[in-house]
Amino acid sequence: RDARPRPVESGTMPTQYLKRILTARVYDVAQETPLERADWLSRRIGNTVLLKREDLQPVFSFKLRGAYNKMANLSAGQLARGVICASAGNHAQGVALAAQRLGCRAVIVMPVTTPRVKVDAVIARGAEVVLHGDSYSDAAAHATALQAEQGLTFVHPFDDPDVIAGQGTIGMEILRQHTGPIDAIFVAIGGGGLAAGIGAYVKQLRPETKLIGVQTTDSDAMARSLKAGRRVELQDVGLFSDGTAVKKVGEETFRLCREYLDDVILVDTDAACAAIKDVFQDTRSILEPAGALAIAGAKAWIERESAARGEPVTGRTLVAVACGANMNFDRLRFVSARAEVGEQREAVFAVTLPEERGSFRRFSELVGPLNVTEFNYRIADAKVAHVFVGVQVGGRDEARAIAANFDAHGFATLDLTDDELAKLHIRHLVGGHSPLARDERLYRFEFPEKPGALMRFLTSMAPDWNISLFHYRNHGADYARILVGLQVPREDDAAFAAFLRTLGYRHWDESANPVYRLFLAAGGESA
Description:
alpha/beta; 8-stranded antiparallel beta sheet
């Protein structure tokens, strides 16, 4: 879609927005954030990526610009009565900081799904927090009711000219900080205030610079609205990128985005996770999902443009607004697990092996040259074995080639890389009680993690004992940790003890562990 600017028929005129942006009172609380080159990412994708580091603001988000600009323009009477807002977290922190600075009461209505780190940050600045609803739209409806009851002034997170102008100062800084050509600026979109503000400034001075919005596939209200030519309200929104979880975009932001947006790119959760990792590798900073959307969008745009042209798109200068870093620490486990898939660096397969002597070893030898990220197996059938395996790859083409190679060697393979059920749940549920796991002994092994180490471990296992359970996941640590079930009859005690000694790896016998007895042992023996 090529949305070239058209004459504005209603609302605030472009020149008036320029004046609002140039005179915005944001620098009482905000700082001019740096525009930094992401060296590692730039080299990787063959284009210059510049990060606008709004994650470095005092509230770790750009939102304080618009919030303060709005509140600084209120009358003394309005400030005396107090303000109210609805927010998923970052706007709330901006309003709380502005209220603290201006000495007024602030009531913040936040969705119950808001990360605790954002709720605590708002409370720490003296604001009153009310948790209500599952999304911004739910919280906004409740805030409107409270506003009428208490005579407060509503500070909208995006659909207000003063808020839009405050966010527009980011565009002003970008053009001042980089005077050379900019091919495209990528901006995350929830309600549209950030994109509207940057577009209102940049498109007046650099109309040749593309402005590209980025949304998640499950919170794409702006993309749908632009396609329909009217504001579309979503029934539900995805909550991983909570900062952009908006069911309906603003009236004024929609009008401005229709004027100034050149395109909207949609990215999924895995792509957002990969972008968080990209920024960490360049800056050692951790963005929240919404804060990383612009980076994910820039990567997706380059990939799409390269595919359309039939050759790599290189040498472009791209600006991505890193707009927030209010990340809950416990989300990092999920981000880490999904980042490799998101950047197409991990492929996940379900492979079927004949349950016969030597087949496990033959498959292990086939996997041998690959960098294995996960290897799960539990005996369940007398005729076939199902193995859940993950490997590092250079892209989707390599994943397809690996699957074809497994098939060619007689191991039926199902590619699960894009299967949400497999990635979220099944990979953690491979196992259970098995009546076939007779004479099973459960051991944990530990050895230095390095390429090929897992397969060397597998080939060292004695062929005389059947492997009935196997679990391995590469956690990026110095040591690999593996759980193995071996079917060893009691008469083989001496031979098995000798095997463990010659193996040379640290190991622990978990056969008496009550957790094993409850969840994995044959027949479901009680603890």
